[in-house]
Design goal:
- This protein has about 270 residues and is an alpha+beta fold.
- It folds into two domains: about 5-140, 2-Layer Sandwich (Fructose-1,6-Bisphosphatase, Chain A, domain 1), CATH 3.30.540.10; about 150-269, D-Maltodextrin-Binding Protein, domain 2 (3-Layer(aba) Sandwich), CATH 3.40.190.
- Helices cover about 35% and strands about 25% of the residues.
- It has helices at about 5-20, 45-55, 90-95, 155-160, 180-190, 205-215, 250-269; strands at about 35, 40, 60-65, 80-85, 100-105, 110-120, 125-130, 130-135, 140, 150-155, 175-180, 195, 200-205, 220-225, 235-240, 240-245.
- The strands form four sheets. It has a seven-stranded mixed sheet, with helices on both faces. Strands 11-10-12-16-14 form a five-stranded mixed sheet. Strands 1-2 form a two-stranded antiparallel sheet.
- The chain is globular and about 50 Å long.
């Protein structure tokens, strides 16, 4: 078994352990606390964080999780786990089936393997750059669409509610609001949607697993400032993220550039 295959096996086992933990909690019937920045956290987040760490972390590996105190010794490690025990906590608290457990293995700053499990919809997306990606055990590939016309774009439910997607209301693609950026990226990796992108900054733990899956499946990933994604940085906050099928990179960048110019022209008037 190669190291990549071993990593995927470990991710799969950890996701199954997390799924078992989440069965003890009821979505829509759980109390939430609120961290700085008004992000919700529940006992489910903490319980899954514990089981992921127990199942994944080995000697010599680093750890970065939304629900763990950051230990900067990870910066000295070549291999680092970047996890979000429960991405989409808002949806979990509201009983909306758009949340997932998200696990990435990052090597030398590059997400090379990932796994996403949505227990509410019974979806498991798993893979690595070496092994490719599977969706519920079957080989998966991203959209092969060549243009934006008619494309399905998964948008942040929060961003849509705040009005940040109004600028795209007349676009030629179809917008579907959804929670959990990790889940959205997983669906893009599996070809269940054509594109997803964020308009606000995200943390590494939000996107590392989904990014690993999209690129491992053959799609593209870029940060919002049009640079490759690099993880295990001292500051895990990213500008934002774009992900989609391989032929949609250029059309999406052209669209975003036009919108950025329009916004700039409006501000200069």
């Amino acid at each position: 078994m190669t190291q990549s295959q071993d990593t995927v096996v470990r991710i799969h086992a950890a996701l199954e352990a997390a799924r078992a933990v989440l069965k003890t909690f009821t979505p829509g019937a759980i109390e939430a606390e609120y961290k700085a920045g008004h992000d919700p956290v529940t006992e489910a987040d903490r319980a899954v964080d514990r089981v992921l760490r127990e199942n994944l972390l080995r000697e010599g590996e680093g750890w970065l999780s939304e629900e763990s105190v950051d230990n900067l010794s990870r910066l000295e490690k070549r291999r680092v786990w970047v996890v979000d025990p429960l991405d989409g906590t808002r949806e979990f608290v509201q009983g909306i089936p758009e949340f997932c457990v998200s696990i990435a293995m990052v090597e030398d700053g590059i997400p090379v393997a990932g796994g996403i499990c949505n227990p509410a919809t019974d979806e498991l997306i798993l893979g690595s750059r070496e092994t490719g990606v599977t969706y519920n055990g079957q080989p998966a590939h991203p959209s092969q669409r060549k243009g934006l016309h008619g494309a399905l774009v998964l948008a942040s439910r929060s961003e849509v509610k705040r009005g940040e997607w109004k600028q795209f209301e007349s676009a030629e693609f179809n917008i579907r609001p959804m929670g959990s950026v990790a889940y959205k990226l997983g669906l893009v990796a599996a070809g269940k949607a054509d594109l997803t992108f964020t308009l606000v900054p995200k943390n590494e733990w939000d996107v590392a697993a989904g990014a690993a899956l999209v690129e491992s499946a053959g799609g593209f990933i870029l940060t919002l400032n049009n640079s490759p994604l690099r993880c295990n940085q001292k500051d895990p906050l990213l500008s934002g993220l774009l992900g989609g099928g391989p032929f949609l990179r250029a059309p999406l960048l052209a669209l975003l550039d036009r919108h950025a110019q329009t916004v700039g022209d409006d501000k200069s008037r």
